[in-house]
Amino acid sequence: MAALQTSAPPVSPPGQDRVIVKRKRTVAQRFRSDWPLLLMTLPAMAQLAVFFYWPSAWNVIAFMDYSPHRPFWENPLVGFAWFERLFNNPYFMPALLNTLKYSFANLLFLFPLSIILALIMHSVVSTKVRSVFQSIVYLPYFFSWVLVVTVFVQTLGSDGLVSNWLLDFGGDRLSFTSNPDTFMFLAWLQWAWKDAGWGMIIFLAALASINPSLYEAAAVDGASRWRRMWHITLPGIRPVIVLLLILHIGGILSVGFEQYQLQRDAIGYQTTEVLDTFIYYRSVIGTEGPSFGTAAGLFKGVIGLILVLIANSVAHRLGEQGIYQKS
Amino acid sequence: MTAIDIKLKPRRKSARPVWDEEPSVLGKAVKALFLICYGAAIVLPIWAVVATSFASEESLASAGGNLLLIPTDFSFAAYQEIFDGGALTKSLILTIGLTAGGTALSMVLTIGAAYGLSRTGSLLHRPLLMLVLFTFLFAPGLYPSFLVVQKLGLFNNYLSIILPMALSAFNLIVLRSFFMNSVPTELLDAARMDGAGEFRTLFKIVLPMSKAILAVIALFYAVGYWNIYFSAVLYIPGLETQPIQVVLQRMLMSTQGLPGAAANVSQYQSAAPDAALKMAVVVCTIIPIVIMYPFIQKHFTKAVITGAIKG
Predict the structure, then answer these.
(1) Are A72 and A290 in contact (CB under 8 A)?
(2) Could you tell me the CA-to-CA distances from B27 to A123, A135, B23 in Å, in that order?
(3) Domains assigned to chain A
(4) A250 to chain B: which residues are within 8 Å by CB?
(5) Any signal peptide, and if so, which residues (chain A) (predicted)?
(6) Which residues of B199-217 are buried (b: 16+ CB within 10 A; e: fewer)?
(7) How far is A39 from chain B (nearest CA, A)?
(8) What are phi and psi of A77, to 5 degrees?
(9) Are residues B123 and B87 located together in one domain of the fold?
(10) Are residues B176 and B70 in the same domain?
(11) Is there a domain that residue B13 lies in?
(12) Pick from B19, B119, B296: which is nearest to A220 by CB?
């Protein structure tokens, strides 16, 4: 199970494929030679244990009537009662639907945009233009959401730069940084501004790995520019597209917290409530209590786990490599 | 005759391969227009932010807005305000400290585990690797993580910002595959023959050969810590000095006339124009990223893409 490999598995270097006969070593012998490696791994494992596996185990309180004020073992088991309560919560379904809506919108919009950007960049021959444009386009990927939202409010908000231009020309102020009806459009602009460049870089790297002699051979055979793109370029970047799709499908219920929380007050909670903000506002700082929030998070985590496994096995069946190989 | 023909042919200006047909003028124009518009949409807002941060009250008022495209005068009032030792200075110092400390810790964890797990067949290699890889598939959830921070007594403690995000399994796997694929095994074997222990091998051979990728990973961690917002909202809501992103968010809320920030903003009110001060804070959060950026860019495609996607 090698993570994140799309190309062929590494071939062992020449000279190593001869059969090495090793005596089976006991655990004590292996410990004596490998203890420094274990020691080096220990801090990272401790971090994972405390901040990944321990909280993962705490998910059991989704099945308990948990209260922090009594000893852990005295909390009564309640089965799936919290999940029932979650699904009956009037704010849960809208939050879930919003999450799916933004997730699919992101997929349907950002993916093609990144690929188109990468194709355009790839067709630019001048290396100077390419490097200048690349450095500009993926700079905002490293900006925080706070920064992105601030810049958007300042330029496109009702007191912002564009509104002032419009006023000068006798128009009206823009209102869409605070208009719930156009939030989807705003979100698209923000993704395009912040993340499209990053997607472009990944696809560009995939494009660069396509053997140029394929293009040459096709051109010699009379294939036009578009046919070359259809028969060489797109199949060439298919493994990367599949890999990113699987990762995206696994994270379909994780659209991020910050972009929505930061615009919650301006846009209104009905439009910006996604699962993460739902958990935070209803449970962490709200009144619904720990078990409720944990149930919502566990629902999200389990759906994500199932979706990754399904997407990956579908990818295997289609002959792609996916995020991990069957081994 | 043919020799003259060849001589008269215009020389190809670009590096376009011979078999590739020259695109039409219209196609080129559309492409150029698209690239220019896209680039301008990214650069102009950033430029306006920088220009506004140096603006004085009068020029802002005459422009009638929050942002200026063309600065008419220069004023450092906003930056004096930030660095005068008040709440903003403290916030910047805190954020720099969190970034430096967090990145150092992250690098220790990541390098240790990446090297420790880079030898197939070592003791416990496979189960430990599985423990790392499982983090790609599942997320423990917001509330349980919050609960653990509380149980550890780290609530409203700056450590709660660093520790939970100290290890990125993705970076760990990228670095591990670099150690496995790009550091020659012969070199490691030779070192072992000469009696060097694992620690010595790591510090004297492996790390010096991995400088570029180590720098990229460190920068990714640093950007992550620098941009911290959500964990501060979640884990340290009660502390007076907040990371710079939280401060920026509060200032943003106050100019939008929104509730939820009013109580906290008074401490940042100042003599400098409101918009200029806010944009100066934005510039301060951008500057470190812009400084690190050329480096990330130089080594990024080489190090991370080849490490992660090509395996």
Answers:
(1) no
(2) 11, 24, 6
(3) 58-89+101-317 (1.10.3720.10)
(4) 137
(5) none
(6) eebbeebbeeebeebbbbb
(7) 8
(8) -75, 135
(9) yes
(10) no
(11) no
(12) B19
- Check the CA dihedral A127-A130-A133-A136 and report its sign: negative
What does each of the 327 residues of chain A score in pLDDT, given as a tens digit? Answer: 444 444 444 555 554 555 555 667 888 888 888 899 999 999 999 999 999 999 999 999 999 999 888 888 889 999 999 999 999 999 999 999 999 999 999 999 998 999 999 998 888 878 888 888 888 888 899 999 999 999 998 888 877 788 878 887 877 878 878 888 889 999 999 999 999 988 888 888 888 888 888 888 888 888 888 888 899 999 988 888 888 888 788 888 888 899 999 999 888 889 999 999 999 999 999 889 899 999 999 999 999 999 988 988 888 887 776 666 543
Chain A interface, best mutation among B34, B110, B142, by max A CB count within 10 A:
B142
Q: Are A143 and B223 in contact (CB under 8 A)?
A: no
Cα dist from A94 to A183, A251, A280, B72, whole Å: 15, 18, 15, 48
| Distance (Å, whole) CA B262 – CA B250 | 8
**Nearest chain A Cα distance for residue B102, angstroms:** 13
What is the domain range of residue B68?
Answer: 26-75
Instruction: DSSP letter for A125, please.
Output: -
Report which DSSP code applies to A64: B
Q: Where do runs of H (alpha helix) occur along A2-62?
A: 27-48, 54-58
Kindly state whether residues B271 and B135 are assigned to the same domain. Answer: yes
Residues of B in contact with A237 (CB under 8 A): none
* Interface size between A and B, measured as CB pairs under 8 A: 315
**Nearest to B300, CA basis, from A147, A129, A256, A197:** A197
Single out the residue of B311, B302, B27 nearest to residue A119, CA to CA.
Answer: B27
Search chain A and give the residue with CA nearest B282. Answer: A147
Q: Does A50 touch chain B (CB under 8 A)?
A: yes
B20: in domain: no
DSSP B69: S
Q: Which of B252, B247, B274 is nearest to B90 (CA)?
A: B247
With H, G, I as helix, E, B as strand and everything else as coil, classify residue A127. helix
Same domain, B229 and B168: yes
ipTM comes to: 0.85
Tell me the Cα Rg of chain A.
Answer: 26
Residue A60: DSSP 8-state = G
In a domain, B4, yes or no: no
**Do B49 and B177 belong together in one domain?**
no
A284 vs B45, B142, B300: nearest CB = B142
Does the beta carbon of B97 lie under 8 angstroms from any beta carbon of chain A? no
| SS3 call for A77 | strand
Same domain, B205 and B299: yes
Q: Please indicate, yes or no, whether residues B36 and B86 belong to a single structural domain of this protein.
A: no
Name every chain B residue with its beta carbon within 8 A of the beta carbon of A204: 301
Number of domains into which chain B is organized: 2
Is B21 contained in some domain? no
Which residue in B17, B138, B166 is closest to A47 by CB distance? B166
Last residue of a domain, one of B75, B103, B135: B75
CATH of the domain at B173: 1.10.3720.10
Tell whether B181 and B86 lie within a shared domain: yes
From residue A277, alpha-carbon distances to A182, A225, B89, B301 in Å are: 20, 47, 30, 34
